[in-house]
Structure formats: C-alpha cells, structure tokens
Amino acid sequence: MPHAALWIAAVVAAAQPSGTSPLQNRDVIELEHCVISLIDHVELPAEEEGKISELLVKEEAVVTQGQVLGQLDVTDTLTAKKVAEARLAVAHEKATNDAEVQVARKLIDLAKAEYEESLAINKRSPGTIPETTLRRQRVTWEKALLDTLAAEMTFKIAGLQREEETAQLEAVDNRLNRRTIRAPFDGVVVKIHRQQSEWVKPGEPIMRLVRMDRLRIEGFVNADLVAPDQLKNAEVKIVLRLPGDDTEVLTARILEVSSIVEASRYRIWTEVDNQPGRGGYKWLMRPGAEAKMVITKNPRGAAAAYSPR
After folding, report:
1. How far, in Å, CA of 277 to CA of 236, rounded?
2. How many domains, the chain?
3. pLDDT number for residue 5
4. In angstroms, rounded to a whole number, what is the distance separating the alpha carbons of residues 8 and 13?
C-alpha cells in the first residue's frame, strides 16, 4: 500500500505544469497568439451605372456614419427630378382645385329649381308650360347630376395622380441617393479601388471601409481541458504587445464561445473599444496583429451575467 500511494502521488505531481501552481492552473488560462480582427468592414459598391464625378476622401481618411464619400454623375438624374417636380406641381394643383365640382353642384341646384318652378306654374295654370319643355328641364337636371358625379370622379382621380407623381419624385430622389456614396458606419477608408472619372457598373467596389473604434480579439481553447461554461462571460485581460517591448492591458469579458469544435479546439472571442495610439498613430490596436488573452475562468456551471455593449 505505501508503494501504491507513492505511485499515485508521483502521477499527480507529474500532471501539474512546471512553474505553475495547482490553483493558478485551475483559475486562469492564458492564450498566446490571439488575433485582433475587424467587427465591421465593407466594400462600398456602385449602386448605379455611371461615371464617378468626384471622390471626396483618400485612403486612411477617418469618416463618420452618413458622411458623403463620393458621387456618381447626376446630370441626367437632376434633369429627371426637375421634370418630376413639375409634374407633381401640376398634379397638386388639379388635386386641390375643386372649382369644376362646385360649379357642377350649382348647376344641379339651378336645373332642379327651373324644373320645380315649371311644375308649380302648371299646377296653378295647367298647360302653361309645354310637356316637352318639362321633359327637357328634367333631362337637364338629371344631366347636371351625372356631370357632378363625373366632376367628382375626375377630382378624385387627380388626387390619385398626385400620389403617383409623388411616388415618381421619390423614385428619382432614391436614384440620386443611390448615386451618392455614404459611409454606413464610423470607420477608416483603407482602400480606394476606382478613381475619379472612371466608369463603374452596379456592384463594382469603389472603396473599402473598416471600423476601427471597436475590434474583436479571438483565440482557440483546447476542448478537452476547458468547458464552455467556464469561459462564457468570464473576465479576460487583453495583453497588447507594442513596439519597443512595451505592453498595454485592456479588460473585457468573453462574449461568445463557438458551438463548433475543430481539431479538438473551439473558438472564443471578445470585443473591446480601441484606444488612442502612440507615436502619432490614431489607434492603439490594428486588425491582423496578435495579442495575449489571460482569462479568469468561471466556476463550473456559474457563468457570470454580462450584457455586451
């Protein structure tokens, strides 16, 4: 028995990494060679066919969401907008001027009054107004009724035509917007593919925009050694290696743990706000660089609650 106990103790001791205490091994995991990557990046395409009339930014320009970065030629589109605005103005006038309807309604009242007056005269003095005149007056009254219905219908159609012309103007405005290149988010223009005065077709990339103010750090964990619930929302320190053997440490939490295991490893990642750079460079972190993740593991089955920004 003493020999068996000594053998078990030796096996346990051999399983512990040299230079690392058992407590440190259980509570902390260090991941070297983690990758800093982009969260948002996009190749801004041409949405319409045409000539690039102007590019308003250069590579490495810092831009804000909604900022105009370039413009396709809009000469024909602006002409189409003037035509659409004129057509809308005419349609609006027709849709708001109901003079014909008002006149038609007054003619109804006049025709009805004449007919009823003739009936009253004949009632007092039979045969004074000929029967043919009475029939003509009644037909005139009925025609005034139908003319009013037609005028009201024309007025209603004018309202619908105004809506159609409004939609046509909106379509032209949409074409103008599609010929304007805007930044979909705050970022940096890292590549310009086409130059001013070049002709582009829909879908062709004009420039590449990346988001630099918030980046992702991701690494891989041995699936046989660490359970996912020990890492999700766990506190992590991001150790950045800077030029000149300098370092910077950022604190975050593990946002996601991949559901897929590949080659006995699974991916984990977090996101952190980028910091001001040094030596005149705007950003502290650059996508594609490496960092170290030092993770304080959660107790088994007790992942910390955390809502990412």
Report:
1. 21
2. 3
3. 41
4. 9
Residue 242 CA to residue 134 CA, distance in Å, equals: 105
Query: DSSP assignment, residue 93?
Result: H
Would residue 108 count as lying in a domain? Answer: yes
Render pLDDT for 98-121 as a digit per residue (tens, 0 to 9). 999 999 999 999 999 999 999 999
Phi-psi label, residue 203: left if phi above 0, alpha if psi -120 to 50, beta otherwise: left
Distance CA 162, CA 97 (A): 12
- The Cβ of residue 254 has, within 10 Å, a number of other Cβ atoms equal to 28
69 plus 184 within the same structural domain: yes
Are residues 229 and 163 both part of a single domain? no
Which residues on adjacent β-strands are paired with residue 21? none
CB 65 within 8 Å of CB 185: yes
Same domain for 53 and 27? no
Instruction: Report yes or no: 27 and 298 within 8 Å, Cβ to Cβ.
Output: no
How many percent of the chain have pLDDT more than 70? 88
286-289 contacts at long range (C-beta below 8 A, 24 or more positions apart): 286/36, 287/36, 287/37, 287/38, 287/210, 287/212, 287/215, 288/35, 288/36, 288/37, 289/35, 289/36, 289/240
- Helix/strand/coil percent split, the chain, to 5: 40, 30, 30
208 closest CA partner among 180, 195, 189: 189
